[in-house]
């Protein structure tokens, strides 16, 4: 069959649709490669920030959006008699997030000390908190309501937890304690997740889009071949 046979077998509408779809799919693949470079730079920036020395929490909180740098607070008294135990689980094991408040120049900052399988008892000590700032989460439609009167907690709420901790809490950020950097050795307490890993699967996504584009081109070519062959026989 000649080139003219193939050209005569190409439905104009199908050819236009296939060309548009091919361009769109390959455009999405190129966009994912751009996202790949952006994510690699973001992960590198996060790694550099995490390796840097802690900055005062006041300095970081003065920024429009605190970055991944470690935040440090002044000395803070910690006592098991002045804690909030918030229901949580780690790897399917139920337990509690231990929360307290540490004073700053203006308002106090809620401190997530870590996770424990049970309520702990320990004597008062002084801690120099070092950790990562995290924005307060909002309760979801299926999140149980905090029962303040019963001291039964399910989500971090500055407005509800502040009076219980006898502190005026900031309502924008709290601090997840880095136990090692804070030299905190509390029996039964385990480290909470300081940072959330950034997934980077953009190269896979790019290959998927490119693959779909070329697969579409292959299907289109097969349709044209079959139509040309049919026309030749007829």
Tell me briefly what this model is:
The protein has 5 helices and 9 strands, in the order H-H-E-H-E-E-E-E-E-E-E-H-E-H. It has helices at residues 3-8, 12-51, 57-61, 158-165, 202-233; strands at residues 55-56, 71-72, 76-78, 84-90, 93-102, 109-116, 125-127, 130-135, 173-177.
Q: Which strand order does the major sheet show?
A: 1-2-8-9-6-5-4
Following the backbone from N to C, one meets helices and strands in this order, namely HHEHEEEEEEEHEH
Number of domains: 2
Please estimate the helix content.
25-40%
Largest sheet, in brief, is: 7 strands, mixed
Low-confidence stretches: none
Termini separation (Å)?
Answer: 13 Å
Secondary-structure-based class equals alpha+beta
Describe the structure.
The structure is a single chain. This protein is of the alpha+beta class and 234 residues long. The chain folds into two domains: 3-47 and 202-233; 69-177, no CATH class. It is 39% helix and 20% strand. It has five helices and nine strands, in the order H-H-E-H-E-E-E-E-E-E-E-H-E-H. It has helices at 3-8, 12-51, 57-61, 158-165, 202-233; strands at residues 55-56, 71-72, 76-78, 84-90, 93-102, 109-116, 125-127, 130-135, 173-177. The strands form two sheets. The protein has a seven-stranded mixed sheet with strand order 1-2-8-9-6-5-4. A two-stranded antiparallel ribbon has the order 3-7.
């Amino acid at each position: 069959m000649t080139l003219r046979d193939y050209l005569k077998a190409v439905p104009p509408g199908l050819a236009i649709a296939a060309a548009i779809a091919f361009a769109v799919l390959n455009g999405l693949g190129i966009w994912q490669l751009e996202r790949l470079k952006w994510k690699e730079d973001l992960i590198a920036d996060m790694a550099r920030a995490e390796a840097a020395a802690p900055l005062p929490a006041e300095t970081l909180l003065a920024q429009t959006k605190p970055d991944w740098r470690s935040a440090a607070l002044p000395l803070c008294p910690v006592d098991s008699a002045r804690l909030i135990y918030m229901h949580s689980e780690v790897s399917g094991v139920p337990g509690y997030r231990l929360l307290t408040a540490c004073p700053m120049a203006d308002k106090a900052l809620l401190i997530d000390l870590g996770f424990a399988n049970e309520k702990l008892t320990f004597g008062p000590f002084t801690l120099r908190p070092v950790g990562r700032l995290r924005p307060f989460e909002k309760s979801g439609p299926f999140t149980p309501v905090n029962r303040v009167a019963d001291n039964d907690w399910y989500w971090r709420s500055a407005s509800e937890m502040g009076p219980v901790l006898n502190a005026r809490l900031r309502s924008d950020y709290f601090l997840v304690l880095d136990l090692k950097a804070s030299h905190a050795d509390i029996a039964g307490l385990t480290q909470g997740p300081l940072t959330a890993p950034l997934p980077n699967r953009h190269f896979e996504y790019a290959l998927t889009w490119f693959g779909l584009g070329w697969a579409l081109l292959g299907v289109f070519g097969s349709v044209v071949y079959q139509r040309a062959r049919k026309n030749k026989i007829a």
